[in-house]
């Protein structure tokens, strides 16, 4: 029988049943070493829920998450799936329907505050509906919201009240999508947690699903955030994460390009306009990410000489941490309105309808897709 891994205690959390560990605050079961001798012994997340009504984001890898998800189909559950509108294709859980069975799903689309103010929200909802249909995901309701601006959450709470009946509420989503903010609002509005709550009132759970008691005897089930390896946000260091993840509304950058021109997005990705009539392309990326235009024939040499310096982030010290780039050639048919999407980094809208031959270069494994234009 194997012993505990380094930093892992044989003790388990009295709140959620997870094995305790003292090495990594980002992983399930973390507890500061000085707290191991306390009674009762609880992981940092359960401690924060009990004392501060605050759910923190804990993550697991994809295989572990799918094992957790497979349990929901056999439960009487209302599922809230929260996704990131900025990284919609990267944060939507593929195949969610086969795991949740006939349980109803509310799709909470977070970070709407990042879109320009002139956005037509009905068109956004229609776009989301079409994307869900393509993925085979049936939704009871799609709610646009902003955790940062506290927009749409009242409607989301009303939808939960209308639809949960005698069900427990399962909240699922990836990392950095706003899941912990939603959990905290649900705790505040529906839970009877208070400062005198004893840890023993937490049901013992496995694999880091935390059950938070509601005032009617049911529970909010906080599932760990899933780490999807194809999202850029999972690859970069914390310093660069702040550069590529926008905090303020996107300011579309429009470029009129001739064929044979290239755009570099710092040292993170590259867009080539290989062939087609002169036309415009609109870039929706973080305002802190510098865009550099050059000729396609010079692009390889420019990257080789200036990656990590002129073309940054990442800077030279972190350049080697990312996988080598893969080239994705995408032909845009005449008459189509498409986004060329790079998960976690943003997208390029092809504005013309003349057709174009393009290519995206991004680190190997990062999701790159052509999709119907969001805006």
UniProtKB/TrEMBL annotation:
<dbReference type="Pfam" id="PF21516">
    <property type="entry name" value="YqeH-like_C"/>
</dbReference>
<dbReference type="InterPro" id="IPR019988">
    <property type="entry name" value="GTP-bd_ribosome_bgen_YqeH"/>
</dbReference>
<dbReference type="InterPro" id="IPR027417">
    <property type="entry name" value="P-loop_NTPase"/>
</dbReference>
<dbReference type="InterPro" id="IPR050896">
    <property type="entry name" value="Mito_lipid_metab_GTPase"/>
</dbReference>
<dbReference type="Pfam" id="PF01926">
    <property type="entry name" value="MMR_HSR1"/>
</dbReference>
<protein>
    <submittedName>
        <fullName>Ribosome biogenesis GTPase YqeH</fullName>
    </submittedName>
</protein>
<feature type="domain" description="CP-type G">
    <location>
        <begin position="66"/>
        <end position="229"/>
    </location>
</feature>
<dbReference type="InterPro" id="IPR048422">
    <property type="entry name" value="NOA1/YqeH-like_C"/>
</dbReference>
<dbReference type="InterPro" id="IPR030378">
    <property type="entry name" value="G_CP_dom"/>
</dbReference>
<dbReference type="InterPro" id="IPR006073">
    <property type="entry name" value="GTP-bd"/>
</dbReference>
């Amino acid at each position: 029988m194997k012993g505990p891994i380094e930093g892992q205690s044989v003790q388990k959390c009295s709140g959620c049943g997870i094995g305790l560990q003292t090495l990594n605050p980002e992983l399930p079961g973390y507890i500061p070493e000085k707290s191991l001798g306390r009674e009762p012994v609880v992981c940092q997340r359960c401690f924060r829920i009990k004392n501060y009504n605050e759910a923190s984001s804990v993550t697991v890898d994809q295989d572990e998450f799918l094992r957790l998800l497979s349990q929901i189909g056999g439960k009487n559950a209302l599922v809230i799936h929260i996704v990131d509108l900025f990284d919609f294709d990267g944060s939507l859980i593929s195949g969610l329907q086969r795991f949740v069975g006939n349980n109803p799903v509310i799709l909470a689309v977070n970070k709407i505050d990042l879109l320009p103010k002139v956005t037509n929200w009905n068109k956004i909802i229609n776009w989301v509906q079409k994307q869900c249909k393509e993925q085979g995901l049936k939704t009871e309701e799609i709610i646009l919201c902003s955790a940062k601006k506290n927009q749409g959450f009242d409607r989301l709470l009303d939808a939960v009240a209308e639809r949960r009946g005698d069900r427990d509420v399962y909240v699922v989503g990836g990392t950095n999508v706003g899941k912990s903010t939603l959990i905290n609002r649900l705790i505040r509005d529906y839970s009877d947690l208070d400062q005198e709550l004893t840890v023993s009132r937490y049901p013992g759970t496995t694999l880091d699903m935390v059950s938070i008691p509601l005032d009617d005897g049911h529970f909010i089930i906080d599932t760990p955030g899933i780490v999807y390896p194809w999202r850029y946000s999972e690859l970069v260091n914390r310093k660069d994460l702040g550069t590529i993840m926008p905090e303020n509304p996107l300011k579309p950058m429009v470029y009129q390009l001739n064929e044979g021109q290239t755009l570099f997005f710092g040292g993170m990705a590259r867009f080539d306009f290989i062939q087609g009539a002169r036309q415009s392309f609109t870039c929706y990326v973080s305002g802190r990410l510098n865009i550099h235009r050059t000729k396609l024939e010079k692009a390889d040499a420019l990257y080789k000489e200036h990656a990590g310096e002129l073309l940054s982030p990442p800077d030279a010290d972190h350049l080697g941490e990312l996988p080598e780039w893969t080239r994705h050639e995408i032909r845009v048919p005449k008459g189509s309105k498409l986004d060329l999407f790079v998960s976690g980094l943003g997208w390029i809208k092809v504005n013309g309808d003349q057709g174009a031959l393009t290519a995206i270069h991004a680190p190997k494994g990062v999701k790159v897709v052509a999709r119907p234009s969001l805006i």
